[in-house]
Amino acid sequence: MSGHSKWSKVKHQKAGTDAAKGAAFTKASRAITIAVKEGGGIIDPDKNFRLRLALGKARSVNMPNDTIDRAIAKAAGEGAASLESAVYEAIGPGGSALIIEAATDNRQRTVSEIKNALDRYGGRLASPGAVMYQFRRVDYIHFRPTFEIHLDEHAHQALTKLLEQLDSLEDVQEIYTNVA
User: Fold this and answer.
1) Residue 21: domain span
2) How many structural domains compose the chain?
3) Is 86 helix (H, G, I), strand (E, B) or coil?
C-alpha cells in the first residue's frame, strides 16, 4: 500500500478549504473595517447600520467572534491600516461602461491591478466623469409585506415623491428610491 496516505489526502483537501475560508474572512474583516471608518468610528452595531450589515456577512461565513472583535478593535484603533474606498471609471469590452468600487490600503497597487484586469479583457481605464454621467445611484428595497398599510392622502403624496418606482410581484414588494 505504498503511496496511499490518508493524511496526505486530508492535507490537500484541508489546504483548499482553509484558503477559501481565509479569503472569506479577509473580505469580511475589511468590510467591518470600512463600516467602522465610514460610520465615524462608531463600534456599536445598533448605532452603525453599515457595521451591523458587515457583522451579518461575517457571521454568514462562520467567522469566529474573537476574529470579529479583533477586526472591530483594529478598525477603531489609531494604528489601524487606513482602508479607503475608491471609485474608478472604465470602458469595458465592446465599449461597455463600468464603475468599479474598491476598498484599498494602497491606491497605486489597486489602480495597477484594475488596469491589468481591464487590459486582459480588452478594456481600459477612463478619465473621471467619462462614464459616471451614464449611471444613477438608487437604493433598492426588496421585502414581503406582512400587513396592509393604509395611508392618508398627505402621507401617500409624500411617499410617492420619495419613491422613484414601486413594483409589486405577487406577494413581494420592490422599491427603488433616489439617493441624494
Assistant:
1) 12-76
2) 3
3) strand
The pLDDT tens digits of the residues spanning 82-122 come to 777 889 999 998 899 999 988 888 889 999 999 999 999 99
Mapped onto helix, strand or coil, the DSSP state of residue 152 is coil
Looking at residue 63, its pLDDT comes to: 92
CATH number at residue 36: 1.10.10.200
* Alpha helix stretches (DSSP H) within 39-151: 49-60, 65-76, 107-120
Q: Write the DSSP assignment of 4-40 as a string of letters.
A: --HHHHHHHHHHHHHHHHHHHHHHHHHHHHHHHHHTT
Give me the amino acid identity at 166: L
CA separation for the pair 123, 179 (Å, rounded): 29
Do 26 and 71 fall into the same domain? yes
Query: What span, in angstroms and rounded, lies between the C-alpha atoms of 124 and 128?
Result: 13
Size of the chain in residues: 180
Does residue 21 contact residue 13 with C-beta atoms inside 8 Å?
no
Dmax (CA) for the chain in angstroms is 82
Please give the share of the chain, as a percent, with pLDDT higher than 70: 74
